[in-house]
Amino acid sequence: MRRALLVAATWLGLGGAALAAAVVLAAVPIGRMDLPWWRARFAAKQAEIRHGRFDLVYYGDSITQNFERVGTTPDSNWPAVWQRFYGRYHPLNLGFKGDTTASLLWRLDHGEGAVRGTAGDPKAAILLIGANNLGRPHWGAAETLAGIRADLEAIHQHMPLTPVILLSVLPADRGTWVAANTREINAGLAARYGGGAVPYVSYVDVTSVFVHDGRIDDSRFIDPHLTPPDPPLHPDATAAAEIAARIAPAVRKAMAGG
């Protein structure tokens, strides 16, 4: 807890007495064990971690969990994308629907930071988190940046030899506040983690997969095609494959040890 608060305070430029008055919830471990399905998934993933060895770990929310979602058409067959791009790397999917940076931080501190690879620490981790901060919790850019930083530092603390491939928060058509804060988050991530500024983090902005001529392309998401439709948020399988292709060079580099 103290580590998370210090990370948040540093990001927000706080110190001394200001820290006591500035608990940034996005950077504090908050579990969701009160939800039966979440508790069951957490237990199942803990069993996977105990009994397996994984060289690639993908941390995230429902966007990551969707790789386990089975469909019958190319744009809904996420497991095929997972197998094509990650199957050879002994991968582990640690995506949980609805999770925030705080929820992930709790998971990392309760076993999901204890993942082991085939020869020590995993060779790479992928992190895609932050979209749910902008939903019901209504944590803005500053809080979310502090939360992402806390997640990254927790991963590094638990698995110091594992490089992290950090993805931008995906665009979503959920109103002007969300759009503005998403842009601010991604600008902050680029400023802090772009160009190898933090040695164990490789930042990849994948916004252009979804935004063309300044507009979000609804056809890249599954949500508008649901009944009833929802605002664009979750990539379809073809867009997920394009994200995987964008980060493939960074994954290959990590797997090769450099």
Could you outline the blueprint of secondary structure elements for this entry?
Elements lengths: L1 H11 L4 H4 L15 H16 L4 E5 L1 H4 L12 H9 L4 E5 L5 H12 L11 E5 L12 H18 L5 E4 L8 H18 L7 E4 L6 E2 L2 E2 L20 H19 L3
Parallel strand pairs: 1-2, 1-3, 3-4, 4-5
Antiparallel strand pairs: 6-7
Helix pairs in contact: 1-7, 5-9, 6-7, 7-8
CATH top-level class: Alpha Beta
Backbone shape: globular
Count of alpha and pi helical runs: 9
Proportion in helices: 40-55%
Proportion in β-strands: 5-15%
Q: Would you give an account of this structure?
A:
The chain is α/β, with parallel strands linked by helices and 258 residues long. Helices cover 43% and strands 10% of the residues. The strands form two sheets. Strands 2-1-3-4-5 form a five-stranded parallel β-sheet, sandwiched between helices. It has a two-stranded antiparallel sheet with strand order 6-7. β4 (164-167), α8 and β5 (201-204) form a beta-alpha-beta unit. It is globular.
